[in-house]
Amino acid sequence: MKNNTNDSSHASHTTQWYLEGFVDEGTTRCRIPISSRIVRIGRSTVADFPLRFDNISRLHAELWVEAGTLWIRDLESRNGTFVNRCRISEPTPLNDGDIVHFATREFRVSRQGQVKSSSTWDTLKGASVLPAEFPFRVGELIRLLREECVIPLYQPIVELATGKIWAYEVLGRGALAGLPSSPKDLLEIAASVGLEAELSRVFRKAGIRSGHASAPPGGFFVNIHASELSDLSGLIYSLRALRSEYPNVPLVAELHEALVTTQEAIARLREELLKLGISLAYDDFGAGQSRLVELAEAPPDYLKFDRSLVHGVAEAGQERLEMLALLVTYAHNRGVRCLAEGLEQQQDAEVCRRLGFDYAQGYLYGKPDPWPWSASTVPGTPPVGPA
User: Fold this and answer.
1) Domain FHA, which positions (predicted)?
2) In which element (H, E) is residue 273 found?
3) Closest CA to 168 of 222, 225, 204, 241
4) Pairing relation of β-strands 165-174 and 220-223?
5) pLDDT confidence of residue 358
């Protein structure tokens, strides 16, 4: 790609503004640094950043930074330049997170610290294939994140000895027209532009904000997305902010068991959680390769046994019952409380109680719903402990 700059010696090492997007049919994602020098976008070979698509004008638009603000101007293009889906006709300032379209080609505006790149554009390696509805959905996703357009959901976690609600797991769904409500679908869109960690944070924050005033004794279990562990400092910062805003709400950070592989990272996270008064749970224990070594060396506060281990346990053979009893005893000896996930039948809950499980979760007690009940006992579900 052409690097049409008059002074390539210092390039853009002081650039703080970027455009990020795909420059072909969804396989190469690029980051374009913008500095005080005008950067022209267009189909022509004389453009500073060529976009070779039929609906892009020869010189389509230009961008520059002035007094710290990023500006964009349409160059009388045939198919238009759009900021947050509004066509522009005069110089327009841009903000971090804005979505810019050159005709139908979408880019996201971002602002970061100093750039140390020596080229006018940086290709981001390993970028995912652009979803078919990317130009519309990613722009809307940015809006969802900015405005926190989500509905928090809560699934009860019940104390088996009493049948009373001990805690809630915080989940959520999207609430913005034009986007799917399913968190799985939203995470797929977010993953295409590296925003899944931000989406995870929005779900956590919304859940605690809506439910904190009526927190049950065990508080709220909040999920940590896999992508957040690659930026441990960012994760800790977000949890610290959550704790600062809600200092008295019991919180449990929930990690999928498969993520508990890097002892150094888990040890650091555990240390920071202790400082914040946040408990730790390993989720889906037994779903794949159960890591007993990690359980021994970095024990959590809670261990959530996967549904595959406890579903139908009332009809299970002696070998399975003995294995579960052994695992529960081992966890208890390490100071870990045990939770059975995915329970749907009362008889399974009773067997789990006899095996020593402390808590249970599943459709037997309630599906994930908006802030659900004021009572401390799940409606219609009797205690499974002794009368």
Assistant:
1) 39-88
2) helix 263-276
3) 222
4) parallel
5) 98
One-letter amino acid identity for 81? Answer: T
What are the C-alpha distances in Å from 95 to residues 107, 155, 290, 375, 380?
A: 13, 37, 46, 45, 51
Cα Rg of the chain (Å, integer)? 25
Tell me if 267 sits within 8 A of 289, measured CB to CB: no
Residue 97 amino acid letter: G
- Spatial distance between the Cα atoms of 168 and 191, rounded to a whole number of angstroms: 26
Place of tokens 């267009």: 42
pLDDT at 220 over 60: yes
Nearest to 313 by CA among 290, 338, 345: 345
Over 50: is that where the pLDDT of 371 sits?
Answer: yes
Query: In this model, does residue 114 exceed pLDDT 50?
Result: no
Structure tokens at 75: 């160059």
Residues of the chain with CATH 3.20.20.450: 141-361
Q: How far is CA 260 from CA 5, 266, 275, 310, 375, in A?
A: 47, 7, 20, 22, 35
Where does the chain hold its CATH 2.60.200.20 domain(s)?
Answer: 17-130
Regarding predicted confidence, which is higher, 282 or 2?
282
Q: Is 357 helix (H, G, I), strand (E, B) or coil?
A: coil
Fold of 17-130: Tumour Suppressor Smad4 (2.60.200)
- Choose between 145 and 71: higher pLDDT: 71
Let me know if 221 is exposed, middle or buried by CB neighbors in 10 A (0-12, 13-18, 19+): buried
Angstrom distances, CA of residue 367 to CA of 68, 111, 175, 224, 314: 49, 40, 19, 20, 22
**CATH classification (class only), 141-361:** alpha beta
Distances (CA, A) of 212 to 98, 201, 218, 277, 371: 32, 16, 12, 16, 10
pTM of the model: 0.67
Indicate whether 158 pLDDT > 80.
yes
Amino acid at site 261: T
Give the Cα separation of 329 and 323 in Å (integer): 10
The arithmetic mean of pLDDT across residues 271-289, rounded, is 88
Q: Please give the full DSSP string across 98-111, using - where no structure is assigned.
A: -EEEETTEEEEEEE
What percent of the chain clears pLDDT 70, i.e. is strictly above it? Answer: 80
Is 213's pLDDT higher than 50? yes
